[in-house]
Amino acid sequence: MRNHLPDRAALAELGVTWAEFEAPLAAGAAGPAMLEALQKRARARFRELALELHPDRTGGDSEKTERYKRLAMAKDQLDALVVQPPQSPRPPQQWSATWSGATSTTTSWWSPPIIRVRF
Predict the structure, then answer these.
(1) How far apart are CA 21 and CA 6, in angstroms?
(2) For 83-116, how does the pLDDT look when each residue is reduced to its tens digit (9 = 90+)?
(3) How far apart are CA 23 and CA 93, in angstroms?
(4) pLDDT of 7-51, one tens digit each?
(5) Which run of H or of E encompasses 97?
(6) Distance of CA 82 to the CA centre of its chain
(7) Planar angle of CA 48, 43, 2, nearest 5 degrees
(8) Residue 41: strand, helix, or coil
């Protein structure tokens, strides 16, 4: 079974202490806002470290590559803890059409419009 909590050492490299990481989990309603603030700080630090540790920049240095992978995994696990609502690519539109006297209405944005054809 895979551990879904970030590695303590990797979090420390990202500038987040374990106490700061545990505080939002126990904070209740204020927790998500605290966790998002930690996530933003960790992402900014990860970007800085990625510039020096990314495998494309290190020329195949295995130690730096492994360190980069560990930090990326910690960042991804921290990101997974922050639940964000799914957002649709565009707001729903109202489609309405009449076909042989019956009216069909749907609010789903991906449904094509029904075209009325007269013979």
Answers:
(1) 9
(2) 654 455 555 555 554 554 445 555 555 555 666 6
(3) 42
(4) 888 888 988 888 888 887 777 767 778 888 888 999 999 999 999
(5) strand 95-99
(6) 7
(7) 115
(8) helix
